[in-house]
Amino acid sequence: MKYLACSAILAGALLLAGGQAKSADDSLPNPYQAPIEHWGQLPEGREWGGVSDEAFDSKGHLWVIERCGGRNCAGSDLAPILEFDTETAKVLKSFGGGMFVQPHGIYIDHNDNDNVWVVDQSAEDAKGEQVWKFTPDGKLLMTLGKAGVKGEGPDTFNDPTGVVIGRDGDIFILDGHVGKNQTVARIVKFSKDGKFLKTWGKKDDQPGDLNDPHNLALDRQGRLFVADRGNSRIDIFDQDGNLLDTWKQFGDPSAVFIDDKDTLYVAQNFLHADAPEFKRGIRIGSAKTGKITGFIEDPDQDPKQTTLGPESLKADKNGTIYAGEVDRKEIKKYVLK
Predict the structure, then answer these.
(1) Distance (Å, rounded) from C-alpha 59 to C-alpha 81?
(2) Which residues pair with 51 in a beta bridge?
(3) At residue 73, what are phi and psi to the nearest 5 degrees?
(4) Is 174:163 a contact under the CB 8 Å cutoff?
(5) What is the pTM of this model?
(6) 30 or 23, greater pLDDT
(7) Domain segments of the chain: what residues?
(8) What is the percent of the chain with per-residue pLDDT over 70, rounded to a whole number?
(9) Using one digit for the tens of pLDDT, what is the confidence trace for 163-200?
(10) In angstroms, rounded to a whole number, what is the distance separating the alpha carbons of residues 284 and 303?
(11) Up-side HSE of residue 79: CA atoms within 13 Å toward CB?
């Protein structure tokens, strides 16, 4: 069964104003104050690069991966993994310098002492195309994938984008970022000790297929929510790869996050020709029902997409959102009204 957009969204999409169809988001309230821009204080002399993902640990600290002051970390010795105190917005710790090409996803394993998982998307100079597991102090515990090697086998990746860990320790890695010659779009499952278990998905637009899978999250039931960006939908799987549902009411998702109350946060960072009725910004809704209750519109809706919007996001227990932006090289903080 496919979930349809709630009636308020459908009404907004169908009403006409001056001969033009209104956006599906026009009737949704924005429950947040104006954002705090350029949140987070880097050490003196260091500038922000593209921010591609965030994660909270059990202490409420925000971990961020930042692309070494630019678009990637190739040739840089700067540490892209940063731990922030959200009260002071200051860096508490950083590590990973010289290890990464283009860090893309970060995840904190709450089953396992807040260990830090980081996905390196690209390959260059015999580095990248790997997923790393660190202790919170930066000790390397596990590496999946072959350094600098692109592939689609059980021990190689082709531009991986995200990782989550199930309650039993199983590892789920999203693989197949968009690219001119990209043919891969899949989820790869490993056991907690890094043994390959299975893979599913291929690049296409049919049910169960993926296209530029960009981010993923687990809900309290253990369901996998995938931001299937190229197909303008969220795909929901069980942990064996069975497709449970497909939601198209959240626009063109670049990132998904689900909190402990089953609130679903979805970021859309650019405008997609296949979903023109959806604006760029952040949608808030229910992971249980698929109903959308709020929308934070990005201030720039330029269809030329000269600057992309929020590409990643996480929310704390109070509903405060921290959204990373790659093009604008910043984190925006959104606090409820």
Answers:
(1) 17
(2) 66
(3) -110, 10
(4) yes
(5) 0.93
(6) 30
(7) 7-34+102-311
(8) 93
(9) 999 999 999 999 999 887 899 999 999 999 999 999 99
(10) 23
(11) 15
